[in-house]
Amino acid sequence: MTQPQNGATTLVNTLVDHGVDICFANPGTSEMHFLAALDNPRMRSVLCLFEGVATGAADGWYRMKETPASTLLHLGPGLANGLANIHNAKRASSGMVNIVGEHSISHLKYNPPLSSDIEGLARPLSHWVRRADSADTIAWDTTQAVQVASEHPGKISTLILPGDVSWRAVETPIVPPARDAARKAPLQARIDHIARVLKSGEPAMIILANRATRGRALDLAGRVARATGARLGSQFFTARIERGAGRTPIERIPYAVAQATAFLEGFQHLITVETVEPVAFFSYPDKPSLMKKEGTSVHALAEADEDSELAFEMLLDALGVSADAPQMIQPALETVPPTGPLNPISIAHALAVAIPENAIVVDESLTTGRESMGLTMGAAPHDLINNMGGSIGYSTPVATGAALACPDRPVICMVGDGSAMYTIQSLWTQAREGLNITTIIFANNSYAILKAEYANMGAGTPGPQAMAMIDIGNPRIDWLAMAKSMGVPSQPVETAEDFTRALADAVRQPGPKLIEVRL
What CA–CA distance (Å, rounded) separates 183 from 195? Predict the structure, then answer.
């Protein structure tokens, strides 16, 4: 006679039945029955040595697969450790199902040391939170968690799993009905209004985000731009952009407020697609928060939860333009391998030469990348992933999840040395899983981005104690030893020639690698 399933096995089977077939896990005692349930041939389990790596990897998985992954986190402190990258995932509209272990219901009344308000921790960064209270209803809870995470835009679901719900037998399982997950269509009246705006000939920029920056939606956006003279742009940070030679080019609105306001000065209209108008990342004394010029009109072509591909089809129809009209094509860069010292420009040229076709580039290079990445638009076709939420330490976990989602594609992760220290444990998971990731550490031995922000804030001349707080060169971090300790081959580079050669070699070889760019 078949033994009944318990809550944990039912939860795992329900996840897989709904397409969630990977779990990024950092388990503890209260999750042992769930851990046992992960021994399921339909579910891939990936061990992460820090919860921020698990949640960041789930973000990277979604950005490439557009289906949610699950995480396993240990009680409230484990969830708290993962919250920074849950924040980044939420800002990137990535779907994620977090399973958070909890003490058994009968044990909680004694207030054991690891007790905490898990709901209170989860709710600010989750779209859906539920505490499971019965093994019989765990399939219902799990199904709803996946349905919410799978909506457009993607959402964060957090399911709290008490130990006794996990180990109890399921007697009368309850499953909710399926629900329609179709994306919303934009209003025709709004489309017609924007068609009139574009026909007016007044300068306009169409600002793309989320699903509009790739696939057919991006192709159609290029046709609209070619037909109307509008320019295509994106926020400085975007969840994922398909870019490179042969693709529709998107101009990146600058990060710095002064540069962004100057960039947007010439536009009478900003047309947003799955995003909002550009807002400064921080507030600065005597600088605006909104970066458009006074009098510029903002129009939404497609809201965040609407179908941008359909919106562009409707817009082309309203404009009287065929969907087969010519689109804008980004030409290939005519570059030669750079020579001489390493600086943002030579680094950009090296990247343009060495990025292989179909690569995934995850960028958290901050100071270096702000000057570099705009010069790589005409490199071989690739995907570029940015940090939408601004919480540091996103890139190495996101690269890990992206590589697992797309094992046939090389991944390049660019990160500053200060940022890399937040989630360097990712290297261990990359080595354990044999992932084809090349991590580039830009080592300037300081929080260089904060030196620039100190000046931008008008905080005066920094004294020695202030400067010591943004100096990480004493002692100097040994990146080669760090990588070796986690099973990742590494090498340093100090010239543009060495960097170009090292990157070209690394992306052709299987498994993880690390390149320390010494600046």
Answer: 22
Say which amino acid occupies 230. A
The domain that contains 303 carries what CATH number? 3.40.50.1220
Q: Across residues 471-493, what is the average pLDDT?
A: 95
Are residues 138 and 199 located together in one domain of the fold? no
User: In terms of residue numbers, what domain contains 311?
Assistant: 188-319
In tens, the pLDDT along 201-231 reads 999 999 999 999 999 999 999 999 999 999 9
Whole-angstrom Cα distance, residue 512 to residue 488? 6
Amino acid (one-letter) located at 407: P
Residues 506/433, Cβ–Cβ less than 8 Å: no
Q: HSE on the CB side for 248, CA within 13 Å?
A: 25
Does the pTM surpass 0.90? The reply is yes
- Residue 182 located in a structural domain: no
| 439 beta partners | 413, 514
Q: What is the CATH number for 86?
A: 3.40.50.970
Secondary structure of 53-65 as H, E, C letters: HHHHHHHHHHHHH
Q: Stretch 284-309: mean pLDDT, rounded?
A: 94
CA atoms within 13 A on the CB side of 48: 31
Q: How far apart, in whole angstroms, are the C-alpha atoms of residue 361 and residue 510?
A: 16
Q: Which residues are registered as beta bridge partners of 269? A: 204, 297
Q: What is the pLDDT of residue 449?
A: 66
Sequence-separated (6 or more) residues with CB below 8 Å from residue 180? none
Same domain? For 383 and 494 the reply is: yes
Q: Is residue 60 part of a domain?
A: yes
Span of 64-78, 85-99, 360-374 with lowest mean pLDDT: 360-374
How sure is the predictor about 1, in pLDDT bands with cuts at 50, 70 and 90?
A: very low
Same domain, 297 and 356: no
In a domain, 338, yes or no: no
DSSP 50: S
Cis geometry, peptide bond prior to residue 407 (ω within 30 degrees of 0):
no
Please report, for residues 265, 365, 371, the alpha-carbon distance to residue 257 in angstroms, rounded to integers and kept in the order given: 12, 19, 15
> Per the structure, how many domains does the chain have?
3
C-alpha–C-alpha distance, residues 517 and 441, integer Å: 6
Could you give phi then psi for residue 130, rounded to 5 degrees?
Answer: -150, 140
Task: Note whether 136 and 174 are within 8 A (CB).
Answer: yes
135 and 79 within one domain? yes
Asked if 366 and 489 sit in the same domain, the reply is: yes
Are the CB atoms for 364 and 439 separated by under 8 Å? Answer: no
Query: Are residues 366 and 418 located together in one domain of the fold?
Result: yes
Q: Is 459 exposed, middle or buried (0-12, 13-18, 19+ CB in 10 A)?
A: exposed
pLDDT for the residue numbered 508 = 94
Which of the listed residues 167, 198, 230 is the one where a domain comes to its end?
A: 167
Residue 332 lies in a domain: no
Q: What gap in Å lies between CA 86 and CA 72, rounded to an integer?
A: 13
